[in-house]
Amino acid sequence: MIPSIGYATNHSFLGLKPYKFERPDARPNEVTIEVLYCGVCHSDIHQVKNEWGNTVYPCVPGHEVVGRVTAVGDSVTTHQIGDLVGVGCMIDSCRECEPCRSGDENYCEGPNSWLATYNGPMVPAKKAADEQNHYGRENTFGGYSNVVVVPEDFVLKIPASLDPKAAAPLLCAGVTTYSPMKHWGVKAGSKVGIVGFGGLGHIAAKIAVAMGATVVLFTTTEEKQDEAIRLGATAVMEKDLKEEVDPTNPLTRTFDFILSTVPEKHNLNPYLPLLKRDATMAICGDLGPLEPINNMQTASHRNSVAGSLIGSIAETQEVLDFCAEHNVAPDIQMIAIADINDAYKEVEKGDVRFRYVIDMSTLKDEEA
């Protein structure tokens, strides 16, 4: 076993604090990684507070992990000691279902779905005697820790030209926005709307601009309009939109694709009149029940409202390579692990520009 330390919580209303635990030794197909940096995702807050009703305590968050390989199993061929690598939202899947065999591990249909980097299987094991947890464990501990152990084919390579600190949010925020834009065919000349201008929205805008798209950011915050221009986009205030078709609005029926990155229930109806015929609005921020959709709007122009969940391992490597090639990186603020509880409050208030990344070397202060 590997002695480990991280930051954990034991209840939804408690903050994170130092937590000592043990990780299993690496299996032959696994690599051991010293964690250097870990991004702070709004999903971490949802999970810590059990806002999705599935949290397994104790909870050690963190699924935007950048680190250095310190040991490799006997059968590992793709990574070597000293490599700079990343770990995203998943560390395993059933590998047997059709999505897994097709390279869509994030849509794993196995008995427990995919194995999350923290909080265990995406679908917790049933307690009935005839059910067996595919992974043999009900909890996993994430990257708010000094070390992680991960199967080699769920470990990503960090391109040398990427700042490893800024690479961390790409492992979740980056692929979560890249995957739907790729799936729905965003390309040079596309007109793309991004709803929400936070951690997900700002990197979505940067990626879409790098793809050659014309980008419009929808925001509730007037102060962010200058930020949008800096990113190569224009900004529109959400309050100026109407739920019905507005022929005087120059944005009506002009969008090829709209992506909602808002991490909570949000009224989508004001955006539907903006979609071209056959265009899609995809939701990647909120995983809960949606506000009711006006189907007259969608049916009248054969529009779709769709969901998208993170991205596959291949897509995660793609977005890392794409961002390295196009010099794209999220705007980050570095914090010490001891400041994580205050950082959560700032994320919830929307006062971050635009993603927090934890310098995990500060965890050594807790080990003393």
From TrEMBL:
Q: Which cofactor does it need?
A: Zn(2+)
The cross-references to InterPro entries, in alphabetical order and at most eight, read: ADH-like_C (IPR013149), ADH-like_N (IPR013154), ADH_Zn_CS (IPR002328), CAD-like (IPR047109), D-isomer_DH_CS1 (IPR029752), ER (IPR020843), GroES-like_sf (IPR011032), NAD(P)-bd_dom_sf (IPR036291)
List membrane-spanning regions: none
Show where the Enoyl reductase (ER) domain sits: 9-358
Q: Which GO terms describe its molecular function?
A: alcohol dehydrogenase (NADP+) activity; zinc ion binding
Alphabetized, the UniProt keywords read: Metal-binding, Oxidoreductase, Zinc
Asked if the keyword RNA-binding belongs to this entry, the reply reads no
Going by the entry's taxonomy, the superkingdom of the source organism is recorded as Bacteria
* SUPFAM superfamilies per the UniProt record, alphabetical: GroES-like, NAD(P)-binding Rossmann-fold domains
Tell me yes or no: is Oxidoreductase among this UniProt entry's keywords: yes
Q: Which family does it belong to?
A: Belongs to the zinc-containing alcohol dehydrogenase family.
Name of the molecule in the record: Uncharacterized zinc-type alcohol dehydrogenase-like protein
Species in which this protein is naturally found: Terriglobus roseus
Source organism phylogeny: Bacteria, Pseudomonadati, Acidobacteriota, Terriglobia, Terriglobales
